[in-house]
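In response to a reviewer's request, we include the raw inputs and outputs for one of the modeled complexes. The two entities were modeled together in a single run.
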Amino acid sequence: MDISKSLYEGERICLAHIDHEKDPEIESKWTHDAAYLRMLSPEPARPLSAAKLKKQYEAIEKEMEEKRNLFYFTIRLRPDDRLIGFARLDWIEWTNGNGYLRMGIGEAEERGKGYGTEALQLLMRYAFHELNLHRLTAVVPEYNPVAVHIVQKAGFTEEVRRRQALDRDGRRWDLLHFGILRQEWQARSEQ
Amino acid sequence: MNTDLFRGELVRLTAEEPELAGKAFARWDRDSEYYRLLDMDPSQLWSPKKIKEWIEKDLEKEEPNEFFFHMHTLEGDHHIGFIGLFVGAWSHRDAWVGIGIGERNYWNNGYGTDAMRVILRYGFTELNLHRVTLGVFAYNQRAIRSYEKAGFNVEGRERDRLHRDGERADCLIMGILREEWQG
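The model returned the following structure tokens for the whole complex.
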């Protein structure tokens, strides 16, 4: 055990709490980037105002407090704490030890720099060594090869291919479920 | 056009009724094997009153994305289970299906497969779905056989997805496409 090693501080980024004052403005800009939204979610893309996002952030913390099965983090650049994305563990089933992982780098200029990979490392350590989960699931559309690459590089295995589950731009796409077990993550992190 | 959408060869599907559901679910859930074949959540016992209240709340929703039915036998009109479709995102026309037969005497007799055929017809011809998805536990071989008979294909396996009786078990994801259902 090394509790001096921070759960939240990576080399270049950190996981942090929500800033209810400043974050809504920034995320509102991201929601006007339809390509970003479509990579994240099957929900129809739609821009959201800062006011709407403020309410969503409040709802997220309420859910975290009441249900205790959601863990939400913002991703910020060190050392100035500038918001660039989010990372969350959803629908945790405590008895089965499974959680669903979702994350995004909303700030377009900050993509492709490995920040997502760094945040994923922090989130996996948090999931396996703080929440003591047994496995993580990540659901990724096949038209998001960047995300597929990131989760595979982090040690996830493709487990399920839901054929033609998505309809975008007039054609059908598969939806992929990736999984990683605690022991798989552990073996890799000890290397 | 098929005008008897809710009727199969062995069962018919009927409207969700909070009172009936509350009583039946509370009773069926006391059969822990039934529940553990059905659901990932820990088996737990709720009163008929509480279940009824949940269902009443569901029924108040204006734009339903859940299509839930009670399952009755054609012979004798016995209430034996439930089946429901849950549409995640309409824009993709993909729905999840869930089914349970609480009356054990009706297990292994084709009622579930018949109900599944009825709800697939409903999903593909009335809701105009493109595909239907389900999750089933690897230890529930009877259900897997029934789903295969109804036309589902295994699309993958989430390893160690469940933890029960001190053991880990996989969860299979199965799917059926509209074109497979038609063929």
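As requested, we also summarize the result in words. The longest strand of chain A covers residues 82-93. Chain A has a mean pLDDT of 97.
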